[in-house]
Amino acid sequence: GEYIHIHDSDNNANFDETTIECGNSEDCITYMGNLFYIHGNSSVDSVFIYNKNENAVEVNIAAFSTIGSLFNPEPSFVQNVTLSESNAWNAFSVEDWNFENPYIIAHTITDEISISLDTEASPLGGFFNGSSWESIETGYSYYTTGIRAKIAKENSNVEYNVYRIDETNSEFLQIAYLLPDSTFIDRDVIELQEYIYGVSATYPENNQESPILIQTGSISILPESYQELSWDDGIFESSIEVEANDSLAVKFRASNMGQKIVRFKWHQLYDGGIIKIIIWDNSQEGLPGNIINSKLATGYNAISGWNEYDLSAEDWSVSGDFWIGIKGFSTTQPIAIDYDVGTNASTFRNPTSEWMILDDWNMGFRVYLDCVGSNVDECGVCDGDNSTCLDCAGVPNGNSIEDCSGVCNGDAKEDCAGVCNGDAVVGCDNACCDLTITDPAEDGFCLVNDECGVCGGSGPIGECGCDNIPIGFCDCSANLFDECNICDGDNSSCADCLDVPNGDAVIDECYVCSNPETYNSTCTGCMDSSANNIGETETPDVWCPNNECEYHCDDCCSYTLTNDANIIPSKFEIINLYPNPFNPQINIEYNLPTTSNVRVSIYNVKGQEVDRLVDSIQYTGFHSLTWVATEQNSGIYFVQITADTNIINQKVMYLK
Questions:
Q1: Does the pLDDT of residue 543 top 70, yes or no?
Q2: Who's near 607: CB < 8 A, 6+ residues apart?
Q3: At a CB cut-off of 8 Å and minimum separation 6, what does 413 contact?
Q4: pTM over 0.90
Q5: How many whole angstroms separate alpha carbon 229 and alpha carbon 247?
Q6: Which residues is 182 bridged to in the sheet?
Q7: 3-class DSSP state of 212
Q8: CB contact burial 350-359 (16+ within 10 A = b; e otherwise)
């Protein structure tokens, strides 16, 4: 059938976490998980992972089947998931994860992404070392990880055998055999006696029994009368360092009739170290007073996590409020601290200080008291009457509280002046004040933030409301001045006739846009600097049949033309680009049918202008120029000639 396979301590699990150390390795990732001893056919439907990482992390969950008696180093199934919930179980559905024998379910870990560990459960964890799996199968002991699986198992006809060692036997004795189910309850036990269990399987194929899988550590059955007292919630957020002769204590309450202390538990960060267990009475100041009992925990091998020391033979009795804790030595390991449960029941002192209450700190100390008759009330007090934990509604351990007016579950609250349902508030200057006072000169007048967020301010005073114009800009919209010193302008207000901002070109008397060097105020003679002026009696230098023509004018221009160049071009065109390909210069020839504003530019294949050869007015006729490309890279370029609004582009190739 279907069931959730759990290796950890279930509801009592208190998870730690671990990462891997990679040093200088760039490949800092591996797998860690749990062994699932499922014989016969089974399928995994869901995987559950307890996430101890503070933030959401992305990992791969994977399953590794068996090859013979070894686990496959290559995953049979992989799925990428995100562990989004911190300090909580994250569930994921998987499909078609089918197996015939035991397997490992794991997820990736790195030097930054951790995996949760249950240090108190049987060590059924596995670690992939880069080439093979290390586990109890190969002589290694790894903590069980926070991985569970929902498994559908077919009946494999495997039968189980249970073995036990107790204080009277040095070898395993079989206490159950050929069990069809994998669950067994041992009812033949004696309270407080230590037991070690082992399990084997008998397979139907050959009726042979597997080696005994031995539980690490021993188990003792506590009497029902043992009452565990604690303040922590089992999850520890920090720790406190313990030096030689430091004392740490937690206050608990026993029955006024008296109870026997039978066990002491403490949670430390690392293995090893020694402690002295001490009982103090409760002083009039509510702090540890006189030492009632003490015992050096010698011969005990303390481990990382919870440790439990048997005090049942010490005959230590307490009544009412008492303190229990430790005195430290140089080898004592840090003690775990829980911040989540707010109490003032933990205290600390060093050899030179008095006892100090640690507000909202709960040390990882617990104590077992023997409540004869098992009459523990709802407040956890042996032979109590529930009176020690009643809320204002008379409910033991209830959540009802009185408000400041003494009404149970009321909504009255104290103001900042300590007046129940008072009108005082905290002003923007963090002073307690009265909103009903309207005169700023009176004591208790409230300073409040104006609409600009200024404490005690009078509202917008800047050019832009609450702010001034940003530095470097000309208005509140963060616009800039143009070259004409116009805010958010387009340079048009100060452009000359050549569209140059603040330029010096003007229209001369001849209605031609000119700069000072070309300014013409007489408008007489030939106004083309590239031509010759013809006087009234001169014969123009033009081509005439048999030189028998004359032409006289006052303001004519003379051009030297070849015999076939006297014809005005009929269209705007590039006549020739040669040589093409070229190195390093190319000749450019073109015709203008009318006098035009001409621009000749060179562009690269990215559309960037790399050179401008002409940018002026040119007259009708044939034109020629040369481009030298020695400063450019080899490649394709485009010659662009613009005459007024007409544009011609032609491709050329430069080969060095």
A1: no
A2: none
A3: 403, 404, 420, 421
A4: no
A5: 20
A6: none
A7: coil
A8: eeeeebeebe
